[in-house]
Amino acid sequence: LLYERAAIFDGAWWRLWTGHWMHFSASHLGWNLAVLLGAGAWLERWHPGWLLRYTLIAAPLISLLLLAGEPAMHTYGGLSGLATGVVVLLALARLARCGSGRSWWLGVLVLVALKIASDATQATALFAGFNPQNVRPSALAHLGGAATAAAYLLSRPARSYTTMRRAIGAVNSGPDVP
Question: Of 48, 88, 147, 151, whose Cβ has the fewest other Cβ atoms within 10 Å?
Fold first, then answer.
């Protein structure tokens, strides 16, 4: 079930989805589940159905990005790309909707960006421990999660597109964009 580059190219296409659910340690699974379940529950409270739809669409897209962008990565496992995407999706959706909480959600996006930068520059994960020790975090998976979250919001019906434009306006200018 693990994302294995060679197996995917040999026809085991289901690994594009299942690789995200495989983990390299209990710590790895614990941190990923904590973020995904916490942000996912929050997302479902405000936007029922988004978590499942996003996860089904984003999982293979993140895996395809890894196939194209990290050819030296032979194996990958973990929910962190999807968890990052759910956090970003939640933050962007809330930015577009709430007035007084904008700075909170902007802060969340800044922290996500800092975490991705940390993963890109460090050989070890910031929070999770891996077994075996030569496993490293994938900044591209996390970046892919963030990008698929923005794309998901943009792909929503016109009302959601307006929501995304408002969220982007909030990031760029502060107040709501008409």
Answer: 48
